[in-house]
Amino acid sequence: MQLLPRDLYEKLEFEKVLELLEKECLGELGIAAVHALKPAATLELIERGLNETREFKLSLDENDHLPISGYSTISEELRMLEVEGYVLPEEGLRNIYAVLAFARDIFRFFKGSRRATYPYLYANIRDVSFDEGLLEAIEKVIDEDGNIRPDASPELLKIRRQMQSKQKELERQFRIVINEYRSKGWLSDNIESFRNGRRVL
User: Do residues 185 and 88 share a domain?
Assistant: First the structure.
């Protein structure tokens, strides 16, 4: 039985509403969710949407903003992690960390009295659990700037120390060459420079 008029989308200018909403999305998953939206056909859905909107407006009016921000889509990273032996690139680890931190902030926001203040918004995560263990494990590997920590593992620490030792040795050898060339009068006043990322005399 057809309850909604066939031309409802046109009468409501629903496509225009979706276009405006899409501009406010902070990531690809939000845009995909907007594309999947249809006009609510039940009173329950309409009331829930209105209550969520009222609560969100209240949070803005009270300067009690939900901690929402842009995010990366990590579906490719998660898919690749299912491959045995796959090593996640640094950027992928950063993306996963950012999404987990975003989720952690949302869960922390709804601790305490906010659950009662924003019950309809809280209902969206009420049945979801969040374990900060993975986030903490990643924090042991990457620093606050999203770079791999030099001491993320004993092996990495050993490699970093070896690299530093080699760099010191290269610097020492470079100084020996500079002193030799200077004593022979082969160097100008501008002793060294960098070209294409390489040190040259």
Answer: no
The pLDDT tens digits for 93-115 are 899 999 999 999 999 999 999 99
Segment 116-136 mean pLDDT:
95
Q: What are phi and psi of 55, to 5 degrees?
A: -65, -40
Interval 168-194: pLDDT, tens: 998 898 888 888 888 887 776 666 667
195 and 99 within one domain:
no
25 found inside a domain = no
Three-state secondary structure string covering the chain: CCCCCCCHHHHHCHHHHHHHHHHCCCCHHHHHHHHCCCCCCCHHHHHHHHHHHHHHHHHHHCCCCCCCCCCCCCHHHHHHHCCCCCCCCHHHHHHHHHHHHHHHHHHHHCCCCHHHHCHHHHCCCCCCCCCCHHHHHHHCCECCCCCECCCCCHHHHHHHHHHHHHHHHHHHHHHHHHHHHHHCCCCCCCCCEEECCEEEC
Q: Is 148:156 a contact under the CB 8 Å cutoff? A: yes
Same domain, 91 and 55: yes
Give the tokens for residue 98.
């950012």
Full domain range(s) for residue 106: 40-149
Query: Is 131 found in the same domain as 46?
Result: yes
pLDDT digits (tens, 9 = 90+) for 30-61: 999 999 998 888 999 999 999 999 999 999 99
